[in-house]
């Protein structure tokens, strides 16, 4: 395929980007000058200005709610939501509608019209909480079935305070769409595990119903996006759960700016062509204006699938079909590092760090943080550590492996089977002297 990169040449910076960079530089200077006269500012021992909210975080006051509010709502000191002042003029910040299967919070029902919200764990949440340049709204499923109108209204109101908009999916849709097609079909295939090897007739019938539920769920997400969309918004769709969403959105409004990003590998075309709905999914994703992947290899696999399965033309910029270009690029994901650095200054965190230092004093510590997932290789990691200790007896008692494992997709049958390795993991960890913490 022509070309060896799907990213634009970084030396040719578009004029609008130059304008944005200059504008951000001026705004930073203005913020610095305004902080010097801010009556509520305090200064730490290093001379760095610290706002009241950050000082409260350091002191550990209302630790949980404060962190959630800061992560989901941004700095509380923003004077006018959605506006930024520059040289006496007011600019409206561009709205970004982030659409993902799950919201960054999990909802827990406390009463007929009462809900509590907790921040969700996961890489997608950690990465997107660092997006602060836009007036962002997050659209997704709250992870709970809410069949009654009173509960839906109360949850919608609670989520609105966190700049979140719910999509209400019933239990059957969740079972067929999320547990079925997403995590029983797409996820294993995208990780090269292949399609389920069950009775062929039963698999075919199950696949058809799950695929229908998948399309229906994507349409439900599109309905909510369209309801809240305003001219000029950018819609950012995420992951394999919503591959049909770009097509649904473009059918509503062909001028809507739509991006789609995949947070898993995209397999080679030989693997993808084993999926019965391969062409439908590729065409739906190509309705987006920009398609993003973590690595160049994943982007190349996607373009190859479009050229070999659909017969479209692959270009250095992406995929072209009869003059319409869908840009394809690699965008390595990151995190809001400042958020984690600030967490080190919080008193309860410092206390926990001290406890860990005392627990593992005098020993080297190796840390693993993974979902309890069949592809993460946690049992293999522990066996490798055991092998290392067998062959290097002088390291026994001097090194420890600390593995944090978070259960995932507990409603999917294949994952229930895979996570039976929980007991195996704990047993193996005892043999090789490692510590495993499973949340």
Automatic annotation (TrEMBL):
Residues 46-61 have a biased composition (Basic and acidic residues). One of its GO terms (molecular function) is alpha,alpha-trehalose-phosphate synthase (UDP-forming) activity. One of its GO terms (biological process) is trehalose biosynthetic process. InterPro entries: Glyco_trans_20. Residues 24-86 are annotated as: Disordered. It is an enzyme of class 2 (transferase). Signal peptide: none annotated. Keywords: Glycosyltransferase, Transferase. The keyword Transferase applies. GO terms for cellular component: cytosol. Gene3D superfamilies: Glycogen Phosphorylase B. Its EC number is 2.4.1.15. In the N-terminal section; belongs to the glycosyltransferase 20 family. In the C-terminal section; belongs to the trehalose phosphatase family. This is alpha,alpha-trehalose-phosphate synthase (UDP-forming). The lineage of its organism: Eukaryota, Viridiplantae, Streptophyta, Embryophyta, Tracheophyta.
């Amino acid at each position: 395929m022509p070309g060896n990169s799907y990213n634009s040449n970084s030396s040719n910076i578009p004029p609008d980007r130059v304008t944005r960079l200059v504008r951000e530089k001026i705004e930073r200077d203005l913020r610095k000058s305004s902080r010097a006269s801010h009556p509520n500012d305090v200064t730490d021992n290093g001379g760095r200005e610290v706002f009241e909210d950050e000082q409260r975080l350091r002191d550990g006051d209302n630790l949980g709610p404060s962190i959630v509010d800061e992560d989901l709502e941004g700095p509380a000191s923003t004077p006018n939501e959605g506006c930024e002042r520059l040289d006496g003029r007011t600019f409206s910040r561009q709205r970004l509608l982030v659409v993902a299967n799950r919201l960054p919070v999990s909802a827990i029902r406390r009463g007929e019209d009462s809900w509590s919200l907790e921040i969700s764990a996961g890489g997608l949440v950690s990465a997107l909480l660092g997006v602060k340049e836009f007036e962002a709204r997050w659209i997704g499923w709250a992870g709970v079935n809410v069949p009654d109108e009173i509960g839906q209204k109360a949850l919608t109101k609670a989520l609105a305070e966190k700049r979140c908009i719910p999509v209400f999916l019933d239990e059957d849709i969740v079972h067929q769409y999320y547990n079925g097609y997403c995590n029983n079909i797409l996820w294993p295939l995208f990780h090269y595990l292949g399609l389920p090897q069950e009775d062929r007739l039963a698999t075919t019938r199950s696949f058809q119903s799950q695929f229908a539920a998948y399309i229906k769920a994507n349409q439900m997400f599109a309905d909510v996006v369209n309801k809240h969309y305003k001219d000029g918004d950018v819609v950012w769709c995420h992951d394999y759960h919503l591959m049909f969403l770009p097509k649904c959105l473009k059918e509503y409004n062909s001028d809507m700016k739509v991006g789609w990003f995949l947070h898993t590998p995209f397999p080679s075309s030989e693997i993808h062509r084993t999926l019965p709905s391969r062409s439908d999914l590729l065409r739906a994703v190509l309705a987006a204006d920009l398609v993003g992947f973590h690595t160049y290899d994943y982007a190349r696999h996607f373009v190859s699938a479009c050229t070999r399965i659909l017969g479209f033309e692959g270009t250095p910029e992406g995929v072209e079909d009869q003059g319409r270009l869908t840009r394809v690029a690699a965008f390595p994901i990151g995190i809001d590092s400042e958020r984690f650095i600030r967490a080190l200054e919080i008193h309860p965190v410092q206390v926990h760090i001290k406890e860990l230092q005392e627990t593992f004093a005098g020993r080297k510590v190796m840390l693993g943080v993974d979902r309890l997932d069949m592809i993460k290789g946690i049992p293999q990691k522990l066996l490798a550590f055991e092998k290392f200790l067998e062959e290097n007896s002088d390291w026994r008692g001097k090194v420890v492996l600390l593995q944090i494992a978070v259960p995932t997709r507990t409603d999917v049958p294949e994952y229930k089977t895979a996570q039976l390795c929980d007991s195996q993991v704990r047993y193996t960890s005892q043999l090789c002297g490692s510590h495993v913490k499973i949340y």
